[in-house]
Amino acid sequence: MAITAERAAPSAAPLRSVSRTARFAGYPFVVPALVVVLAVMSYPFVYSVYLSFQSTPSYTTATRFDGLANYLAVLHDHTFVQALENTLTWTAASTVLGILLGLGAALLVQQLRLFRGPIRAALMLPYIVGYVVASYAWLWLFQGEYGLINVTLQSWHLTSHPISFLSSLTWAFPAVILANIWKTFPFAMVMLLAGLQGVPNEPVLAARLDRASHWRIFWEVKLPYLRRVLVITTMLLAFQNFNTFTIPYIMTGGGPLNHTEIVSNYIYDSAFTNLNFGLAAAASVIVIIILMIFAVFYVRALGREQASDRRMV
Amino acid sequence: MLTRRNVLRGGIGLAGATLLAACASGGGAGGSGGNGNGLDVWDWSPAPDQWGEQQQNTFYGKTFPKQYPHTNFSYTIFGYTDMLTKLTVSWRGGSVPDVGRLAIAWTPQFVNEGLTAEITEADLGVPLSNFWPQALQSVRKNGASSGPLYGIPTNNESMMLIYNKDLFTAAGLDPSHGPATWEDLVSYARTIRKKTGKYGYGMVGAQNNGNTPYRFCPMMWGYGSGIFDELSATPTWKTVGINSAGTVSALELYNQMYNIDGSAQPSALSDQESDIDTLFLKGEVAMMIDHPNAAAQVHETLPSLNMGADLIPAGPVRRASVFGGSNLVIKAGTPNMKNAVDFIRAYLTPNTDTLLSGLGSNPANKAGFSSPAEKVRDAKLLFNDVTLKMMPYGVNVPLVTQGSQIWNETIPSMIQNVLSKSMTPQQAAANAASQIQQIMQ
Asked: What class is the B160-320+402-440 domain?
């Protein structure tokens, strides 16, 4: 032991010095990528903010400062307000139902003894499928005349005539939300399954010995352990849903009568159909502000969970 | 020595070098170069017209490069729906291409804003009398009836009415011809629905969809109304005319078919052209208005389907169809102007222009109709004569910078307002007029 201590002692100082140098040695490797990433991300962001205060009257790059005109135009645009309301409903419904479905699927997969692999793979399928493929698949499923859903409903005598889901002011939005939930719930499932696998066995076994019901074991033993992953998954899914573009764009194009129009579609149409880049930039900045509010909640929730973890330790 | 200062110095130097390299490569992103010897062309694919795709690949990949071996030629073929957004962004950023092919509906936003170079008859080597007057109008600033050209038509087409003869017979209608007027069409559709249980007319009513007005506007024009004053001999594109009686009559007929007779399919508000094609193939829809090659595609998929075709019905004022097609435009100020003109001349050779029109359109250079390629097209196309007869009735889409917004958003919304019973035809037309006035401000 003495020999080891003697040998260790002289090497301690150089080790500290090397580690300090090593700390900086990583920077040259990281800085170029960091600069490129920052340039790629920050330039469009800064330019969007700049553009949001500019009037872009024609097709050319000529712009002129126009103060808050674009922001006022966006906020007074009935379509944007409707798109924003739709987006909030879309995000809330898709996230809550996606989490519930994901949790159910995670619990199911965890309980399975037979065919666990194939069933897990089947449940992951929607996540693997591309957004465009998923959108077209649901478009055909919901098709008013020959869609599988209508054919099934009619063959089961649940309806006497086909329902034009995507043409209906009542059904179009729930239909596209359903397609989105199908596409995104596997993400929640995977996250929550990982969380469930991290729940220690001992408290579950103890609860079973105390003859606690399945529901009580889930509610009072497993769920508290899942809280952190649940919060993170909810926030990430909410971000993802808020930013969705493809599903409503392909399935309904925002129709009928803007009933499925969400803000990302509104921004795209403003820029590329209507050529109003200033207005589109202003709408984008408003969306960024809303997302930053989400982000604040996310960071706070994450901080609270980390603090709670530290207290538990 | 690895000191903090040296490490940071190295990092900053490396970052600077990386950025410089990125800038340098960005500057050359044009591919073909800006020294006058290059040529970069963007086009869109005629898919699903496979024959047309083959002709396009041959021309871009073999014919033109072989004809001009010393030109540093590069080209990109986009999907139809991608082309406009890509070119909008690229030209707005002052970048490639030197030449682009644009659908007529997209052309005004480039031509009206001075982004395209003037092309003269001498440049082309083709007499301008070889082109349809509506086509030339689409490449003039502000859709003028005369004046310099800022692009050149490559292909033009009109739609036609295609119908299922067996469903006509089953409904007791004469299958040898289609309905002569729009009122006849509504009446035929009603009869077919009553007698066969099938939908008489395939209605396209999806939002944010250019194909929706493609079917509605011929009816509106037939009743004498225009979006602007496009039906006049010298349109100004300044007077909004959509709130006139003709539009209301056309909307009333749409309402009659969809909400009263139930003779148009209930999914019309979300149906696009391809949905109607599917319903027609399944025998669920008896009549549809479609592109020149639609009948050939239906026949290829289901040869047993007994089809007929006729002119698009006439209204009390006139017969009309949307004048479709594309134009080649040259980027204003391109250093590769000579090569761009050479390219256009090569493209517009009668036989080449006819081949490149594929099965979905016709050569813009009418000399192409007597070329060997036209014989091949004629053999492949069903009812080619019908769509050609429709050409003189063609009316242009709004030739204003904001045309896409009006065409893709305002008109479909007007139709949806009526079909969803959110507004009366009068209210919907007035609402559309007020939206257009706002857009044009």
From this structure: alpha beta
